[in-house]
């Protein structure tokens, strides 16, 4: 966008998708003659917040809410660290040339929560339960085999002792 006074502003990525706790670059490039004042504002459903204002080559005034999370660059861009759900919304940049001409830009930021950790937990839990059930099935199979062997042995011993008793009874008669 170019203003009549010769200041221009380019927003190469007007729509940004980020995840919680990510560091993002809200990239712009302004050009123009003289000293310009650059101002960033964030507008969301929670309201409007002024993030930062600075003059090229001069002072930087960062809002206390963003003090530890914002880095400014001479081309007008800002870097926002550790984004959260509240950072989603519209970012308006105003570049004002020293003669009073303005140019504006907008960036839309969408922030998503990371659900991969939850899915990872469910997958690990499922794998653990599957392994546990396989071990229990093997254990039950071994118990069943052992029980069958014991039953055969006991049955064989009972059959042998009844045969002896029958033979002893026959001899006594």
TrEMBL record:
Location(s) in or outside the cell: Membrane
Cellular-component GO terms for this entry: axon; dendrite; plasma membrane
Matching SUPFAM superfamilies: Immunoglobulin (SSF48726)
Entry-linked InterPro entries: CD2/SLAM_rcpt, Ig-like_dom_sf, Ig-like_fold, Ig_sub, Ig_V-set
Residue ranges annotated for the Immunoglobulin domain, each copy included: 13-112
Keyword Glycoprotein annotated: yes
Gene3D superfamilies noted in UniProt: Immunoglobulins
Annotated transmembrane regions: 119-143
Primary location: membrane
One of the Pfam families matching this protein, by short name: V-set
Protein name: VSTM5 protein
Source organism: Oreotrochilus melanogaster
Protein encoded by which gene: Vstm5
